[in-house]
Amino acid sequence: MADLLSTVAILFIVAGPFLLVANRFRLPTVPLLIVAGIFAGVFVDEELTLELAQYGIALLVFWFGVKIELSTVRTVLSDSEIATLAQILVVGSLGVGLGLVLGVPFQESLYLGIAAALSSTIVGVFLLQREIQRNLVRGRLAESIHFVQDLIAVILLLVLGAGAFELDPIATQLGYGVLFFIAAILVNRYVFDLLGRLAGNSSELMIVGSVSILVLFIGTARLVDVSIVVGAFAAGLAIRHDREQYLDLFNGIESIRDFFVAIFFLTIGALVAVPTLEKLLLVAGLVVLTAVVKPAITTVVLIFQGYEARTATLTSLGIDQVSEFSLIIAIQALLLGALGQTVFDAIIMAAAVTMITSSLTQRFDERIYLFLADRNLIRGRHGRVDALSRLPDDITDHVIIVGYGRQGRKLVDACENLEQSYVVVENDPEIRPLVREECDAFVFGDAMDRYTWEKARAGAARLILSTVPYDPISRLILELGVEADVILNASDVETALKLMDEGAHYVVVADLLAGEQLVTYTSAILSGEMTPEELRDGRVEALRSRHGG
């Protein structure tokens, strides 16, 4: 145990200067953590690093199980299932073929196929936090694809963990996997809320209880000789609950997650070995399959399913890395003697390379899409937009409302009260039924796709109102070159001023408006213009009217 803690200490001591550089120059942390791990690998023992990597991956997989929002994933699950299965079959087969062409035995080539086919939930979700938090379709699609891949990876872990391709040991492992997930469902449904009632308002007790559930699942996994990652994933699903109800608990788990995210990337770097020509050929092939072929296939499948080219491309750029499940499978195979050191080193190196390149593709994803679109290397299909949209062909002098959230609903109500024609632009499958029910005219399409604006007849509109504080959308609206007046949203004053300089007629800054409203109410109370009771009664009435009575 002391040796393991010493390994952790060395990794973080070496990582310190790299993190300072990242913070100072606002550089992505993932590449620098991996590079720091490469330097730290000189000072740490490989066996201890392998053990640390397994626990680090297990705890991060636990966090993903806790965090997954099945209600949002469910809206795009059928599409993500098709995209996932298609790219796994194609890329996995190509990975196996790569190994065979380069003289790798078939059994070891299977692990190359797995490495190429599966994508990293840790990296993908970590890099797509903004898109997932804002509930963007691309974030939800990528999260759903990762979720389906993780389920497939768990099955692969169980099958390969049998140690032999024989029916009895494989059936035993799969049986244990089923029992783990049944236990997760039972704990989630009957035990977790009981734990919450017993803990009362103590977030510390809730965190201790949740960690105890994790330890119980991991301990049971070790007892029955199942990968601890399977136990950790099941434990995450066991305590997955409404975030708002257990906010302190999930904030505490996220703090633990940040520590193990750093551990994960550092151990990946530390496991990178000195390359040989044979390794470099394998690495080059894996990187091409993972970072180029896999996104390309996923993009084609999503476009074929009716998604706009931009949504499909940006979603695909969130799965262009080797998965942590591939790494745990490779580590398990290495320890069992089913995988040689050369292929293992190639998988580790390809993981390190693709995790670095993935952070860069996420940073420049819009530029990559525009580069491909401008050269007609990618073309969208608009049948889905046409089929899901509803608006008069001759609509003119209308208001275009981007986003049907809280602000969007208020704007629609205002337009209907004034008998003003309008078109809602939305791209969220989860609220599609609500839009169809409540809105007279709407376009279901990506606001970053120009066809959506053609469909909404932006050239004939009198006013464009964006409720989305997302800079790329705001700038695209300003670049449309239409005569309509433009009102936008921004997350801060600095961005608002830039958008005003670029041609916006008005920019809403929610925090600024809330602050100004608070000052107005405070001044009214202090000056005697309004009593606290009058303020309260007025606020309750306003909230009830907006909540629907």
Mind sketching the topology for me?
Blueprint: H1 2-25, H2 29-40, H3 46-67, H4 70-73, H5 77-101, H6 106-117, H7 121-127, H8 129-133, H9 137-161, H10 167-199, H11 203-223, H12 228-238, H13 247-270, H14 277-304, H15 309-316, H16 324-336, H17 341-363, H18 365-374, H19 383-388, E1 399-402, H20 406-417, E2 422-426, H21 432-438, E3 442-444, H22 450-455, E4 463-466, H23 471-479, E5 485-490, H24 493-501, E6 506-509, H25 510-527, H26 532-546
Parallel strand pairs: 1-2, 1-4, 2-3, 4-5, 5-6
Helix pairs in contact: 1-2, 1-3, 1-13, 2-13, 3-12, 3-13, 3-16, 5-6, 5-9, 5-14, 6-14, 6-16, 9-10, 9-15, 9-16, 10-11, 10-12, 11-12, 11-13, 14-15, 14-17, 15-18, 16-17
Q: How is the main sheet built?
A: 6 strands, parallel
CATH architecture of the largest domain: Up-down Bundle
Low-confidence stretches: none
User: What is the CATH class designation of the largest domain?
Assistant: Mainly Alpha
- Percent of residues in beta strands? under 5%
The class by helix and strand makeup works out as mainly alpha
- The strands making up the biggest β-sheet line up spatially as 3-2-1-4-5-6
The helical percent reads over 70%
Record field, number of beta strands: 6
Radius of gyration: 26 Å
**Measured distance between first and last alpha carbons:** 60 Å
Number of discrete domains: 2
Number of helices: 26
